[in-house]
Amino acid sequence: MSNPSPATVAPPREHTPALRSITIPRGELDSSTGLLDYVIRNDTHTWVRRGDGLVAFGEAARFTTHGPSRFAQAQVWWRALLAGSDVVNPLPQSGTGLVAFGSFAFSKTSLHQSRLIVPRIVVGCKDGHSWLTYITDDDDTDLSADAAEAALAEYLDEVAPERGPSHGDRLASGILTEEQWMTAVSRGVAHIRAGELSKLVLARDVVAELGSPIATAQVLRELAVRYADCWTYSVDGLIGSTPEMLIKVEDQTARARVLAGTLDRSNAPVGDENYAQRVLAGSEKQQHEHEIAIDSLTHQLEPFTSSMTSHSEPFVLELPNVWHLASDVSAELAVDSDGRVPTSLALVEALHPTAAVCGTPTSVAGELIRELEHLERGPYAGPVGWVDAAGNGEWGIALRGAVVESPTRVRMYAGCGIVEGSNPAAELAESWSKFRPMIEALGLRL
Predict the structure, then answer these.
(1) 128: which DSSP letter?
(2) Are 433 and 262 in contact (CB under 8 A)?
(3) Contact 121, 155 (CB under 8 A)
(4) Helices (H) and strands (E) in the chain, counts
(5) Distance, CA of 343 to CA of 405 (rounded, Å)
(6) By CB distance 3.0 to 4.6 Å, which of 37, 100, 221, 313 could disulfide with 116?
(7) What are the pLDDT digits (tens) for 332-358?
(8) Is position 4 within any domain?
(9) Residue 361 pLDDT
(10) What share of the chain is helix, strand, coil (3-state, %, to 5)?
(11) For residue range 359-407, what is the model confidence (pLDDT) as tens digits?
């Protein structure tokens, strides 16, 4: 199903502020911690991987929307904001200058508010070299290096306390019990065997009820250290560490990482170094699931590219909790008839939802998800990341994460790819392996 073009979408009604910003280069960060030294507040916007990325504070502007045209409306708003802003940015690096953090609902039918948030302070880092961006909507604010450092220092004055295990901590069932969810899986397999679709992704939720308030910054640091190869994110109460890059755009090149096929490491035999390669790569079910996911992404991305490359065979991605079959895709973006390269937001609109988080065909899978899950996914499995003024950006799929519903209530999500050979009990076990990163980061036990 085609997505609406930004040119055909009416401008959003929300007020678009006139912003001013300045970006200044800074020195090298501590190589052992990188940006994690700045993840100290519970309200921090975060996008970090191996010490690089963006950490931001405050809010200079916000746009919210929902529905089928949510991506296009966000693009229209972002372009309008950029057109009315005064930006001083001497650095060519992507992620400098005006930046918006974003989180979008998984479903076009969801009433959950998708959002773009422009912070007031952004600390960025790439390859150890950092920068600082100061953003304001006040015409009288001094925009200088000293003013930017002073504003950052004010945010860093407030350090969130850490949290230890509490006797009141517990895990509770989500919308469906384990038995109800396995029944949903069985029904999904029946639809696949009937020839209605070839793959379906079914998600479930569990709720962490905490005896003391969540320490979000501590959770993010735990995730970033334990899952260094993943992208640790935090946008407006949506937190997690995703292994799946939906799309990254930088200097007219787009990159994606596709995952489909999962093996729980807790069940691996000791001393068998080839176990993951043999079981994942040798599994017809896992290979089939992965092939569907990679074909879905490359098919949707192809119209925007002049050339594209991907692994001829998937590789095994090793994470602390699971192994995945993974493929990296790289593409050179084509210039359109107006002489413009598609932005990361435009590609997000074209690519979402992928087979890896929805199924194939997506229209049939989407209807079955609503019928079988009984779950409002909200931002789970939707795009999360950032975009800059040049259209560069990094957008992951909001997996291995949770929504902080209150200081003591956190809803976690996990999904599994269902194909004809799926077994409900095995899929349930796989879902628990995917919950493990958040459960452990919260200091809980299964």
Answers:
(1) T
(2) yes
(3) yes
(4) 9, 23
(5) 32
(6) 100
(7) 999 877 778 899 999 999 999 988 899
(8) no
(9) 93
(10) 30, 35, 40
(11) 999 999 999 999 999 999 999 999 999 999 999 999 999 999 999 999 9
List of residues 6+ apart from 360 with CB closer than 8 A: 197, 198, 199, 292, 296
**Structure confidence at residue 292 (pLDDT):** 79
Q: Are 47 and 240 in contact (CB under 8 A)?
A: no
Pairing of strands 86-88, 20-28: parallel
DSSP per-residue string spanning 57-72? ES-SEEEEE-STTHHH
Element (H, E) at 115: strand 114-118
Residues 251-301 have pLDDT tens digits of 889 999 888 778 888 778 877 778 888 888 777 777 777 787 788 888 888
Q: What angle do CA 84, 86, 91 make, to 5 degrees?
A: 130
pLDDT at position 392 is 96
Query: Does 92 fall in a domain?
Result: yes
Distance of alpha carbon 94 from alpha carbon 199, whole angstroms: 36
Q: Is residue 434 in some structural domain?
A: yes
For residue 37, give the DSSP letter.
Answer: G
141 Cα distance to chain centroid: 33
Distance between CA atoms of residues 408 and 387, nearest Å: 31
Give pLDDT tens digits for 129-181: 999 999 999 998 999 999 999 999 999 999 999 998 888 999 999 999 999 99
Length of the chain, in residues? 446
Residue 285 phi/psi, 5° resolution?
Answer: -65, -45
Residue indicated by tokens 């098919």: 299
Report the amino acid identity of residue 352.
Answer: H
Q: What pLDDT is attached to residue 8?
A: 45
Q: What is the pLDDT of residue 446?
A: 67
**How many C-beta neighbours within 10 Å does residue 284 have?**
9
Indicate whether 270 belongs to any domain: yes
How many structural domains are present in the chain? 1
Per the structure, the complete domain to which residue 112 belongs is given by: 16-441
> What's the CATH number where 306 sits?
3.60.120.10
Closest by CA to 289, choosing from 431, 422, 435, 434, is: 422
What is the per-residue pLDDT for 241? 97
Higher pLDDT, 279 or 36: 36
Q: How far apart are CA 383 and CA 106, in angstroms?
A: 7
What span, in angstroms and rounded, lies between the C-alpha atoms of 171 and 439? 9
CB 290 within 8 A of CB 356: no
Task: Please state, in angstroms and rounded to a whole number, the distance separating the CA atoms of residues 135 and 118.
Answer: 8
pLDDT in tens, 219-243: 999 999 999 999 999 999 999 999 9
Whether residue 322 has pLDDT greater than 90: no
